[in-house]
Amino acid sequence: xxxxxxxxxxxxxxxxxxxxxxxxxxxxxxxxxxxxxxxxxxxxxxxxxxxxxxxxxxxxxxxxxxxxxxxxxxxxxxxxxxxxxxxxxxxxxxxxxxxxxxxxxxxxxxxxxxxxxxxxxxxxxxxxxxxxxxxxxxxxxxxxxxxxxxxxxxxxxxxxxxxxxxxxxxxxxxxxxxxxxxxxxxxxxxxxxxxxxxxxxxxxxxxxxxxxxxxxxxxxxxxxxxxxxxxxxxxxxxxxxxxxxxxxxxxxxxxxxxxxxxxxxxxxxxxxxxxxxxxxxxxxxxxxxxxxxxxxxxxxxxxxxxxxxxxxxxxxxxxxxxxxxxxxxxxxxxxxxxxxxxxxxxxxxxxxxxxxxxxxxxxxxxxxxxxxxxxxxxxxxxxxxxxxxxxxxxxxxxxxxxxxxxxxxx
Amino acid sequence: xxxxxxxxxxxxxxxxxxxxxxxxxxxxxxxxxxxxxxxxxxxxxxxxxxxxxxxxxxxxxxxxxxxxxxxxxxxxxxxxxxxxxxxxxxxxxxxxxxxxxxxxxxxxxxxxxxxxxxxxxxxxxxxxxxxxxxxxxxxxxxxxxxxxxxxxxxxxxxxxxxxxxxxxxxxxxxxxxxxxxxxxxxxxxxxxxxxxxxxxxxxxxxxxxxxxxxxxxxxxxxxxxxxxxxxxxxxxxxxxxxxxxxxxxxxxxxxxxxxxxxxxxxxxxxxxxxxxxxxxxxxxxxxxxxxxxxxxxxxxxxxxxxxxxxxxxxxxxxxxxxxxxxxxxxxxxxxxxxxxxxxxxxxxxxxxxxxxxxxxxxxxxxxxxxxxxxxxxxxxxxxxxxxxxxxxxxxxxxxxxxxxxxxxxx
Lengths: 410, 410
Description:
Number of strands of chain A: 13
Structural class of chain A: alpha/beta
Low-confidence stretches of chain A: none
Number of helices of chain A: 14
Family (chains A, B): Belongs to the class-V pyridoxal-phosphate-dependent aminotransferase family.
CATH topology of the largest domain in chain A: Aspartate Aminotransferase, domain 2
Shape of chain A: globular
Strand order of the largest sheet of chain A: 2-10-9-8-5-3-4
CATH class of the largest domain in chain A: Alpha Beta
Helix content of chain A: 40-55%
InterPro entries (chains A, B): Aminotrans_V_dom, PyrdxlP-dep_Trfase, PyrdxlP-dep_Trfase_major, PyrdxlP-dep_Trfase_small, SP_NH2Trfase/AEP_transaminase
CATH superfamily of the largest domain in chain A: Type I PLP-dependent aspartate aminotransferase-like (Major domain)
Distance between the termini of chain A: 55 Å
Oligomer: homodimer
Order of helices and strands of chain A: EHHEHEHEHEEEHEEEHHHHHEHEEHH
Domain Aminotransferase class V (chains A, B): 39-348
Binding site for substrate (chains A, B): 359
Mean pLDDT of chain A: 96
Largest sheet of chain A: 7 strands, mixed
Organism (chains A, B): Alkalicoccus halolimnae
Number of domains of chain A: 2
Largest interface: A-B, 91 and 89 residues
Strand content of chain A: 5-15%
Radius of gyration of chain A: 22 Å
């Protein structure tokens, strides 16, 4: 086996993106034991930081040791019992993922769908909730497959006022786009570390409130082999179907009880903690503004090049800019050249949009002006080489002007 | 938030143990995209190395992005359908975990139990299989809670000859104790990275053969949003209950089809790859011998100190030495002093053995003579400070003699 030395890439996809160098350094810290007081203190501090990340006062806020979808599955399988009615408003691929998870939990899943590229007027969702009367409404906040951002607050308020649960997939938005768990009445949420948080993939910060906890706790089963006699005698017929993703067990592990569950992923926790430190040093609001400013530069550059933005609406997801692939251009060929010749990675999309759009992310540490220049010049060069007459030099000059105020001499 | 700087620990527990410094360095490599050809090549090379680790020719051998129990749950929830009869022979805490997971998959779980500290004569298990006729027999190979090692080959041979499935939890043994997946007729297996593999917790290498795959494939459901029309029309009533841990989906992601599932945990894969490289450079057989030699030094040192080994049988798990806590000694106090004063971590156990034994691991990178000296002298010092008259100096001198051949002058 040869030593693995990764190439240096400029990653401008909707994730995984470049991890902050401080996070990469933190990953190489030596291991300490999971019940070492230094480690349990780190767990506690991380919980506090996850609360601040989601802007929540919830007691429960910690990472799941798995990639983003493990966080959503933990939330959903801990809340959903077979037969529960779940509404999933879908406006892209990751909405389907929520139906997929809910179905596997035995839910009776109902969907409403928007054409890809659009989002829901909150009223459409609340009307459907009224009609259907679901126990849970589950929705994606930032849909990376289409580059769209769903407004949540009015849906959350309605769910709360009618005592229903509202759960949100915030994988693509947390740490980069405005997201207010408590203000928006979100009962349970899951994020991902490999996008705007700028850590490696493999950890999913989640949070849930006491309303969600109450539902889960009715189904609690402490693990055999470590449970007490009293717990042994409890009724386990409604138990949560996963052991690994059972939030009632995980919260015992993350609480002073420290009831052994899995062995916390040490290095990934180091990474998450440092990611959150970086975010707090920058400040959440400043960070969101930074993402917006790079989005503007990318969008202006793309237009200056002579291309069209696919998701150019008020509901555009700020951290993903989708670009319509011009007719007769080899979509995959352009991306391949960008990667192989220029070391720049962008993405295409899924389903109906596969091969139709390019998706340019600007997330976390990847949202830097050097990267914006790099992706614009590489895309222009690859387009020219593929026979598309992009406006030469215009994209980078436009971005340069936005960043520096300097105009190219005529 | 303060910068987190972990203390330097000597970790002599049954895991998580010290990661190899080369693995820690690999963790800090920059991120690359999950469909970057350099990354998919790394995935392929890792699969090959996982095959060699388990000594198997199976096509499917890859890590689950979660801690060890996520690997066992992936195997079990992909194989078990509601109502399936599953036999779990239990000889410690982690046997209970297997029942817990199987029950949550809807299995009809049957157990046979040995008193903690013993293992099964394979005949006892095969007799029960004959009587019960289970679809699956699931067992732990190395039970860290009791420090016992279960012989597997005769059980595996019987299951194969009668066309039943045999699945094994090899979390504690893989990479440190003899384990031969194919020769022992194991159909599916899961390991952990934070023990003898000497990586961080958070990744679980698994493998399964074509017999296991056939059972899973009957239940296959490609994810909505990325499945084809033909796949859409398939019968999904028997689908696997987890999306995240669905091996039929994961194998499509790990195959040339590269069907998108989760975003592979980049840094953890870097770590696993480097761990496996370290193992191959040492050689599996040499590595197993190394673990045995350190076990001998620890055991001899413990006895020389005047203590009793709890699991001193032919079925002792070589990588975990359990020590009976002497009467009237403050079990937790001794461990606390070892950690706080000497930076050395050992463990107690669970259930009936909690507070009754200390468990001293010697796994992976932690299985080094410096660590053996360190744990022996720290345990001796803490025992003396807690009023137990250990034989002063004898433990380290005994180990020193074994490592160097030099006897302390009288």
